[in-house]
């Protein structure tokens, strides 16, 4: 177990280097979204349409940030339960997604896709949303504005 600094997008080499228990410090762009946004992404894939961002090498954080306080890019940014994305994650992993951040267990189908396509699942501590939000330097909606806070599908960490 160690402290590993990584940047986005992730490569297969970085994913292979990570071990259970590592503290991972991420620098770069992290995409965010919960189940409603994931469903829309999968609908695009199923129709053969382009996604609103290139998923290859990217990380998705399963979060629905609360509205921002004045002067902050987002409000609290705690993880949501990951199994809610299990129906959608394998297709995104097949498309090149390299990392997911959330809380809780994942289905065997998701685990199998992660092993096959070299993807890593990282746990964020529930209840730490206010602390996590302090690491977010900027936020921009790139898709699904009608989903409110869940629409903050891109955040940039330090």
Rg calculated over all Cα atoms: 15 Å
Outline type: globular
The helix content, as a percent range, equals 10-25%
Kindly report the average pLDDT value. 87
Q: What's the main sheet like?
A: 6 strands, mixed
Strand arrangement across the biggest beta sheet = 6-5-4-3-8-7
What's the CATH class label? Alpha Beta
Low-confidence residue ranges: none
User: In the CATH hierarchy, what is the architecture at level 2?
Assistant: Alpha-Beta Barrel
Whole-number tally of structural domains: 1
Instruction: State which percent range the strand residues make up.
Output: 15-25%
The CATH topology annotation reads as fumarase
Number of helices: 5
Q: Spell out the helices and strands N to C.
A: EHEEHEHEHEHEE
Class per helix and strand makeup: alpha/beta
CATH superfamily assignment?
Fe-S hydro-lyase, tartrate dehydratase beta-type, catalytic domain
How far the N terminus sits from the C terminus, by CA atoms, comes to: 23 Å
């Amino acid at each position: 177990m160690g402290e590993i600094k990584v940047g986005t997008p992730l490569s297969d080499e970085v994913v292979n280097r990570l071990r259970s228990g590592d503290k991972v410090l991420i620098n770069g762009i992290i995409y965010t979204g919960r189940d409603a946004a994931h469903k829309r992404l999968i609908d695009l894939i199923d129709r053969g349409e382009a996604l609103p961002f290139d998923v290859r090498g990217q990380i998705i954080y399963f979060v629905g940030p609360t509205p921002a306080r004045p002067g902050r890019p987002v409000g609290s940014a705690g993880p949501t339960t990951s199994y809610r994305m299990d129906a959608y994650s394998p297709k995104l992993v097949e498309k090149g997604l390299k990392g997911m951040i959330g809380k809780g267990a994942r289905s065997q189908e998701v685990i199998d896709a992660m092993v096959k396509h070299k993807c890593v699942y990282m746990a964020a501590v529930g209840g730490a949303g206010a602390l996590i939000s302090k690491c977010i330097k900027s936020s921009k909606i790139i898709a699904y504005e009608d989903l409110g806070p869940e629409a903050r599908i891109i955040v940039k960490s330090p």
